[in-house]
Amino acid sequence: MGPEKMKEIITDVLKDVDVVIGYKQGFDKLHATPCFINKAEQIEEIIWSPVCVQNLASFLPSLKAKKVGVVVKGCDSRTIVQYMQEGLIDRSKVVVVGIPCTGVVSVKKVLDKVNHQPIEDVVFEADGAILVKTPAGETKLSLADVSPDKCSTCLYPTPVVYDHLAAEPIKSVKAPEDVYKDVEEFEGKSLEERKVYWEKEFDRCIRCYACRNACPMCVCQDSCIAESRDPHWISQKSNLSEKFMFHMIHSIHLAGRCVECGECERVCPMGIPVNALKKKLNHDMKALYNYEPGVNPEDKPPMYTFSVEEKKIEEHKL
Amino acid sequence: MSEIAPKELRIVGFLCNWCSYGGADTAGVSRFRQPTDLRIIRVPCSGRVDPLFIVKALLNGADGVLVSGCHPRDCHYTDGNFYARRRLEMLKQLLPYLGIDEKRFHYTWISASEGQRWQKTVTDFTNQIHKLGPLHSTTEAHSGS
Q1: pLDDT digits (tens, 9 = 90+) for B44-74
Q2: Which positions 80-99 of B are in contact with A (Cβ < 8 Å)?
Q3: CA A290 vs CA A82, A123, A165, A252, A286: distances in Å
Q4: What is B11-136's CATH number?
């Protein structure tokens, strides 16, 4: 994948936008961090490699007043489409630089593999291998082993919306029916097992709200009902039912909107599978309303509309 | 829940002002016998019922939740119950994923003239909840920790 081509495109784009959002290197070679560029000399800072994990499209609604260029991977591009469906951005003021992506790394998984040693260097080889250098020595990893779960079922490696493309488009080789395999597998468990599972997971939650803050579709920001006192949906008490309630607020507000970028799960300091709830909702939205978020700008999110005769909803009998 | 006789469970009902609340009133005026486990909350329209109301009720002491509105096409505000139907169906499918029996939540449509139907719905739903038993022994043990 050509960072050089991407830099060329960004040099061009920068001429007629206020700011370009891209990635630069973070505090070590394993971490990338978002960067905001408005001068041509800053372009050299920009990087592109599988450590560029963040969803940069998340910044767009807060920069609505400006003309913005943004670098997106395939999964992140769905965020832009969803923003368009919901009228949260003005597409004419956004220049999308798409990157066909072959998968990113999960920083947590890499650190687990090298026993959380300080990272000295990370080299990505052409065949998909990753060389991680630490004081303890060199470890060779394969990208498939350390990529987040979302990459293993990625259907959109090439952005679904873009103005410029930094490399040749890539076709997905993943089967669409595999995307919700984990949801269906979990549904095979008994009611009691599921209850115990979620109670165990949510009990670890420290309510740092990182999942909400990182979520591109959580656009209420400071007006989030999880923190408001009026109405007072949840209290400061640190007990399971409040934690459970917070996750219900987060996931129900994302019903039929979640683009499955996986940011919630990536930022969770407690390793709670937050994304699983949203995947379940998306699975149902597909089954009930034949809707997939963030794919077609002309679609309407299912909770924003209705049909008089719902073909898939049957009346429930007692 | 020691203050409540063991026989009675807590069921929360969200009823729309224009149809189902009227239906419940009709049932009362007609002196139909009904179980007393249900506590009714009157809402302007079934479209007012946020799925989170139901979750909050189930997490905070209710053993069952019943939502009832006008029949589709009969909504006082034209389309409130159409939106409600989509949201409530979404929740109905989500609850079992979390390990909460979907039978604890029921939504239906009852008009102001259907006193008899209201009586039947309440009786059947209450029986269903009694068959499942109380929801809260486990959650309460956790909330103390």
Answers
A1: 999 999 999 999 999 999 999 999 999 999 9
A2: 82-83, 85-87, 89-94, 96-99
A3: 16, 42, 29, 18, 4
A4: 3.40.50
